[in-house]
Amino acid sequence: MVSHGSSPSLLEALSSDFLACKICLEQLQAPKTLPCLHTYCQDCLGQLADGSRIRCPECRETVPVPPEGVAAFKTNFFVNGLLDLVKARACGDLRAGKPACALCPLVGGTSAGGPATARCLDCADDLCQACADGHRCTRQTHTHRVVDLVGYRAGWYDEEARERQAAQCPQHPGEALRFLCQPCSHLLCRECRLDPHLDHPCLPLAEAVRARRPGLEELLAGVDSNLVELEAARRVEKEALARLREQAARVGTQVEEAAEGVLRALLAQKQEVLGQLRAHVEAAEEAARGRLAELEGREQVARAAAAFARRVLSLGREAEILSLEGAIAQRLRQLQGCPWAPGPAPCLLPQLELHPGLLDKNCHLLQLSFEEQQPQKDGGKDGAGTQGGEESQSRREDAPKTERQGGVQPQARDGAQTPKEEKAQTTREDGVQTLEEDRAQIPHEDGGPQPHRGGRPNKKKKFKGRLKSISREPSPALGPNLDGSGLLPRPIFSCSFPTRMPGDKRSPRITGLCPFGPREILVADEQNRALKCFSLNGDYKGTVPVPEGCSPCSVAALQSAVAFSAGARLYLISPDGEVQWRRALSLSQASHAVAALPSGDRVAVSVAGHVEVYNMEGSLATRFIPGGKASRGLRALVFLTTSPQGHFVGSDWQQNSVVICDGLGQVVGEYKGPGLHGCQPGSVSVDKKGYIFLTLREVNKVVILDPKGSLLGDFLTAYHGLEKPRVTTMVDGRYLVVSLSNGTIHVFRVRSPDS
C-alpha cells in the first residue's frame, strides 16, 4: 500500500494487484471506472448491476448506471496502457517457444518471421537483428527507440516504453488518441476529430494535460490534507477508545477491590460485635453464678433448720420440746429476719442496631460517575501542550483519591460527609487501614473511644456498624484489551509446601515445572539432579529417574513420557526412567526451554533463536524462527509454553519482550511495555481461556496478559507471599503453581471473572 504522500512507481503498479479485478480476481478485461474511481471488468459490472443502480464492492457507494448500460462508464485508459505493457512483455508471436519477428513476414513474404532479438518501443513490434538494423536506417523510423528484447522482457525499459506508448481509440482500431475536445471532454483520434467534433475547439493531449494538471494537483493536495485530518481523527478516536478500555479495566479492578474491602470490613465488624456479645454474656454469667451460690447456701441453711424443728415437734416429748424451744425459736426468728433473696440484679439484654444505610434499598455503596473525555492535543514548540499537561496533572493531584481512581465513590445518604466520617476514611500512606485503626474509629455512645471488648459493660451500649473505605492504587500499566465485563481472573490461595526431601544433599533449585497426571506436578530440581513428583496438596509421590550425571533444567510431560533439557541435550524418558532418545542442542545457549504441545505427542524446545518441535520418535517435525528470518534480530526464548489455542508463548530476553506466535512462527502478539518494570520477562503459563501469566522475579510479581499479549494488570504480588518467584506452570487450566527461589511452592486457584 502506497501512502498518500508519495508517488507510486510503475514497478509497484505492475507487480501489485492493481491490475486485478476485485470481483473476478483475474486480470482486468475492458476496464471500466466507476465515479468512485474503482475499476472493474465491464462484464463483471454487468453481472453486478441491479437495474439502474450499482453498488461498488469496495467502498459500498451506490452509483447510477448510465442509460446505455455499464459500457458507458469511462474506460480506464491508464489501466489499459499498463495491461498492454504487461501483455507485450509476457506474450508475442511465438515460434518453438521463442518470440518471432513481426516485420519478416511483411518483407520476405514468409508466414513466420525469424527469431526476435530486439523491440521497437514506438511501434511496439518485436524485431530480428536484420530488421532492427534496417529499422534504424529508414527516414520514418530512424528516431524510434529500438532496445534489446531480453532487457525489455525483464522490465528494464518499462518507464521508457510507457512514455512512448500511445492510447488506442476504441472506435477506430489502429488510431492513437491525439486530441481532447474541450466542450465534450472526450479523447479523440484523427478520425474522431474530422467527424462529429470538427467545429469543437480541441487541444493536443500534451497541451491539455499541461492546462488541466494544476487543477487536479490542487484537488489532490486538498484530499491529502483531508487524509491527514482523517488519520489524526482516527488516531484520536483509537486513543480515546484505548483510554476508555484502560479506565474501564482500572475501574473494574477498583470495584473488585472496593467490594472485597467492604466485605473484609464487614467481617471485621462482625467479629467485633460477636466479641462484645461474648464478653457481655460471660460477665453476666459470672455475676449470676455468684448470686446463685449465695442463694443455694441460704436455702440449704434454712432447710436444715426447718427440718430440725419439724423433727423435734413431731418426735420429741414435752420435756424435750420445751428444753429446745428457746434455741429453735431464736434460730427461726433469726432466719426470718434475714432477706431471703438479694435485690433484683440488673439484666442488660443485647440488641442489634443496623446502620440505616444497610436497610435502605436506595443506598449505593458504589456508584459510577462519567466525565466527558477532553481531546488530547499535541504540544507545540511554544510548550503549550506541556503546560496544559502540567495543569491537568496538578488538577488530578488536587482531586480526591476516589475520583482519581476512576469515579467509584461511596454514596452518603445526604450527599455529604460528616467530620467523623471523614476521619473514619483517613488511611495510612499505603492506602490501607488496619483493623486496630478501624476499631478505634467506631464511635462510643459518649463520643469517646470504644472500650476493649474484654471489659465488663456497665450500661446499655449502641453499636452502629460503619463500612470503612479500603483504598489501594491499582497497577499503572493496565492494558486496553478486556474480556467480557473487564474484570480480571483473581487468585484464590490453595496451599503451600516445601520441595526439599530428606535425601536431598542441597537446597532445592527449581528450574522447571509441568503438570504430571491428574492434580500432580513434576518438579525439576537442578541442584539435586532430580525430577520430583508432588500432588497439588503437597504430598510427595516419588521421583522419575534421570540418567546418571544429568541435571534437569526445563521439563514437560507428554502422553506416556517425560521430556527435559539438561546442558546442551534434549532427553525423552519413560516414567520409570528409561531413555527413549536424546538429541544434541546448540552450545551457544545456556539453558533450553521445553514445552509440550496441546496434543501431547510432540515437544518444543528453544534453540539459539528458533524453536524446534520433535515427535515421540525423536524426529524433527518442524523448525521455525519466531517472526521469520525478516524479523528484527534474533530471539532468545529463555522460557517457553503453549496455549490451548495452539500458540507458542515465550519470554524473549534478546528483545526483552513476551512474544506469541502461531505454529508457523508468525508473531500474533508481543508485549514489551512499561508493565515489565524494566525487568527481563520470566516464566510464562497459560490457562484454559488463553490468559498469559508472566513472572517478574525482580519485583515479586506475576502479571496477567490477554491472549493477544496486552497487559491487563497484576495477578500476584508480594501481598500474596511471593518472594523471588522463579518458575510457574498451569495445572488443569485452573491451578497456577508458583515456585520460589527458596524451593517453596505456592498453589493458587485461578477464579475466572464469570465464575
UniProtKB/TrEMBL annotation:
PANTHER family: BONUS, ISOFORM C-RELATED (PTHR25462), E3 UBIQUITIN-PROTEIN LIGASE TRIM56 (PTHR25462:SF299). Residues 372-485 are annotated as: Disordered. It comes from the Eukaryota. Pathway: Protein modification; protein ubiquitination. Residues 392-404, 419-447 have a biased composition (Basic and acidic residues). Pfam families: zf-B_box, zf-RING_UBOX. Belongs to the TRIM/RBCC family. Residues 21-60 form the RING-type domain. Keywords: Antiviral defense, Autophagy, Coiled coil, Cytoplasm, Immunity, Innate immunity, Metal-binding, Phosphoprotein, Repeat, Transferase, Ubl conjugation, Ubl conjugation pathway, Zinc, Zinc-finger. One of its GO terms (cellular component) is cytoplasm. Residues 164-205 form the B box-type domain. GO terms for biological process: autophagy; defense response to virus; innate immune response; positive regulation of type I interferon-mediated signaling pathway; protein monoubiquitination; regulation of type I interferon production. GO terms for molecular function: ubiquitin protein ligase activity; zinc ion binding. Its EC number is 2.3.2.27. This is E3 ubiquitin-protein ligase TRIM56. It catalyses: S-ubiquitinyl-[E2 ubiquitin-conjugating enzyme]-L-cysteine + [acceptor protein]-L-lysine = [E2 ubiquitin-conjugating enzyme]-L-cysteine + N(6)-ubiquitinyl-[acceptor protein]-L-lysine. It is found in: Cytoplasm. Residues 227-287 form a coiled coil. CDD domains: Bbox1_TRIM56_C-V (cd19810), Bbox2_TRIM56_C-V (cd19789), RING-HC_TRIM56_C-V (cd16584). Residues 453-469 have a biased composition (Basic residues). The gene is TRIM56.
